[in-house]
Amino acid sequence: MNPFVLVQPRSHAQAAKVMAAGGSYRLPVLKAGGIDVLDHLKEGLLSPDAVVNVRRLGAEGPAVTRLADGSIRIEAGATLAQLASDPILLADATVVAQSAGSAATPAIRNIASAAGNLLQRPRCWYYRHAQFECLKKGGSMCFAVDGENAHHAIFGPGPCHIVHPSNLAPALMVLDGQVHLTGSKRDRIAAADLFHMPDKGILSEHNLEQGEVITHLTLRPRPTSGFHAVKAKQSFDWPSALACVSLRVEEGVIREASVCAGAVAPVPWMLPRVGAALKGAKATDDAAIAAAAELAAEGAKPMRDNGYKVALLVASVRRATLRALGRETPSFREIRP
Amino acid sequence: MQSLGVSAAAASVAANAEATAKSGRAGGSDGDAPSVMGPNPIDLTLTVNGVKHAMKVEPCTTLLEALRLHAGLTGTKEICDRGSCGGCSVLIDGVLAVSCLMLAIDCAGASITTVEGLAKADGTLHPLQEAFIRHDALQCGYCTPGFLVAGAWLMASTPKPTLPQIQQAMAGNICRCGTYTNIFNAVLEATGQRPLIDGTIA
Ligand SMILES: Cc1cc2nc3c(=O)[nH]c(=O)nc-3n(C[C@H](O)[C@H](O)[C@H](O)COP(=O)(O)OP(=O)(O)OC[C@H]3O[C@@H](n4cnc5c(N)ncnc54)[C@H](O)[C@@H]3O)c2cc1C
Ligand code: FES
Ligand code: FES
User: Quick check: B158 contacting A, CB < 8 Å?
Assistant: First the structure.
């Protein structure tokens, strides 16, 4: 790790000022829990002259609150552990609590923040290895195309084939999440607009401008929502495929469905066809749910080594749907201590 | 981070004229400018196992480096150095954390517990340490400090954890020698429950 100056702002707005382009520092990097930032510093992927530390800003207040308009507010610095055990989320935004509780390890969930989880960089091993000058680092090729691509995308035209790594982002997508900002003219961006495909900009995955800092998230409550992930190592790992499902059920019939996958495409991958097929299905109609889940595979174009992800995606969508309906109990590894 | 040790913040800013100048610029017209530390070593005091350790560290120093190299507490192990093995687990204000991905400065003012702090001052071992010995819950022993800290964290909140709860609490700890069954048995026994397989050694 190269030495840096540590800046300790007193508010997110102050952090945004320090981070703004043309400020005092050449390459300031914002750090929350620091799980992904420290990894980058150690790998030599980032050499900031200043680290702007927003860890624990707002930590004295509640991590999650219910707003007057019925929506739910999550602080940027809320830890994944707080989200996983929060009574408001467990009751009314189950998919968020489940996705946070399934991410990483207990020790990491205790440190990692919600905002940092959304903006963590991809896990592509070529990106993560300083020796590979890949497209994402300003190089001329995506090594995954002809290389080792078992963990790469099954959707998207490229030219870079990362998968979106965050557990939380797909959960936010199915609850119409809003990402609230400070540091620019706009005060928010929809979760659906937070990320872009590689052909729309390859060096970064998100649409925040330099100097924009996340203050909090808001989302629509939806008790009938659920998460499922399949991992190479079930104890902890970034998922090989994950699905988030949110449903509105009336008199035993699914009236609305929003479905989003993670770890299969460069962005959280909305599955509108699955959602449409679930609409009108009886909550007890397993065959209809399974048939809808199959549609998740539409348009998938696996690379040499990642075809297995298609089946994992379909299974994840089916099981997340059942879980949203309260039809499946969590696997024992997801029980909190 | 309002909880930053006041002495550390004040001393560091005073000790670094360049940093102080930058702090003025970065803060702009805000009355309450952000504090700026480093890049040169700053004074930091860490409270580890109830003992205060004064040290001079660069802001880029991890808690793991501070513990091992500056406080001389080498029980906490560096294995992956990337948050993936749990070998460096410590408690920060009673909460399990990996020290390899934590800046030492972020722990100013906190109470840190390492594996050295699990036993009592008179040398009486933590019940989990006793159980590890009885169950031979280690082979090379490199992962052991991390498992002990994770287990102690679980026991502090959950007096009688179920096996799934034990597996979940220790999910971030990897034992390359594969001693998991004995480790789980040790936690079960240390919490007054029957081991899965009675593999205790006399
Ligand atoms: C062993 C291991 C397993 C893991 N498994 C999973 C998993 O299964 N699923 C999963 O989702 N993640 C997983 N992770 C990743 C981990 O959850 C993220 O690295 C973590 O959530 C990042 O949060 P942080 O607060 O530490 O962010 P930091 O590392 O501090 O920051 C990450 C990024 O977010 C930016 N950022 C942080 N806060 C803000 C803000 N308020 N405004 C604007 N930008 C901000 C930073 O600038 C940086 O670019 C794993 C990590 C490890 C080490
Ligand atoms: S050394 Fe910190 S988790 Fe492996
Ligand atoms: S005893 Fe050797 S790694 Fe666990």
Answer: yes
Query: Measuring CA to CA, which residue among B153, B158, B148 is closest to residue B183?
Result: B148
Gap between the Cα atoms of A324 and A247, Å rounded = 7
Contacts of A8 in chain B (CB under 8 A): 1, 4, 9, 34-37
Q: Which domains does chain A have, with CATH numbers?
A: 1-55 (3.30.43.10), 225-324 (3.30.390.50)
Residue with tokens 């078992």: A150
pTM: 0.93
Residues B88 and B157 in one domain: no
Q: ipTM value, please give it.
A: 0.94
To the nearest 10°, the Cα dihedral for B110, B116, B119, B122? -100
Domain carrying residue B164: 127-201
Token digits for B94?
Answer: 């009673």
Q: Which among A5, A34, A105 is the nearest to B102, CB-wise?
A: A34
CA distances from A178 to A175, A219, B152, B154 (A): 9, 6, 39, 35
Q: Are residues B97 and B148 in the same domain?
A: no
19-38 of A, contacting B, C-beta below 8 A? 23-25, 33-35, 38
pLDDT single digits (tens) B78-113: 999 999 999 999 999 999 999 999 999 999 999 999
Nearest to B165 among A25, A33, A335 (CB): A335
Specify the CATH number for the domain of residue B82.
3.10.20.30
Eight-state DSSP code of residue B117: G
**Vertex A84: Cα angle to A83 and A85 (nearest 5):** 95
CB within 8 Å of B123: residues ≥ 6 apart: none
User: What's the whole-number average pLDDT of chain B?
Assistant: 87
Same domain, B96 and B165: no
Q: Where are the alpha helices (DSSP H) in chain B?
A: 6-15, 17-27, 63-65, 127-135, 144-157, 163-169, 180-190
